[in-house]
Amino acid sequence: MLQAIVDFQRDIYLAFAEHIKTFANGGGWTAFLAFLPMGIVFGAVHALTPGHSKAVLATYLTGASAGMTRGLTVSIALSATHVTMAVLIALFSLPLVSVMLGSAGSAPLLEDVSRGLLGAIGAWMLWSALFRPPHHHGEGESVAVGFMAGLVPCPLTLFVMTFAMSRGVPEAGIMFAIVMMTGVALTLSSVALSAVLFRTRIERLLATQRELLAKASKTLEAVAGVILVSVAIHEIFMR
């Protein structure tokens, strides 16, 4: 199934490259704009492949007492940062790509920064679970987590942006990035809402046992914190 997703993603990418080439050669906006909505499909399928911090997103939301609105906030912030970082690198720092990107599809420096910051969030969640009374995490924290998890740039957006700029039509790459961001957000929002729904169901099952519910909430927060710290340590020091 994963291979089928990868193959489908490659086909859409090649089709976009062809449309960008045609547009750059004077093909006009009509054909390009007609195909542009496929970028939403491309983004949604691309986000199904390994990576994109889906596990981190689900882990955080499971342990953070987040509601549906906050779950969407985290996933949208993650999606926007993930794609925007690639656009910014292509537009303003293309000569530095070889420094930032160790190889195609990876960004070691930004990965270390992202995982380090998420590890700090995990440590905070663990400390909070052990020493603070039950509380709700703030909206600002949700946006921060989404930003930190999305710091690693989207490699396919970077490839498309680079291709579009090499053809002299960066506006085509930017428009592609916007619609792709929508598709990525759709997939990550589904993951976020599933995690929130899972936690909500557990809370409903324990609704009549308030003391047990409080303990379960603290336990989930502590486990989420430990997982985030463990992922950060593993990604930074052991990969």
TrEMBL record:
Any Gene Ontology CC annotation: plasma membrane
Entry keyword annotation includes rRNA-binding: no
Annotated TM spans: 29-50, 113-131, 143-166, 172-198, 219-237
GO function terms (MF aspect): monoatomic cation efflux transmembrane transporter activity; nickel cation transmembrane transporter activity
Superkingdom field: Bacteria
Membrane topology: Multi-pass membrane protein
Key words, A-Z: Cell membrane, Cobalt, Cobalt transport, Ion transport, Membrane, Nickel, Nickel transport, Transmembrane, Transmembrane helix, Transport
Cellular compartments annotated: Cell membrane
Function: Efflux system for nickel and cobalt.
Protein name in UniProt: Nickel/cobalt efflux system
Protein source organism: Sinorhizobium americanum
Upper taxonomic lineage: Bacteria, Pseudomonadati, Pseudomonadota, Alphaproteobacteria, Hyphomicrobiales
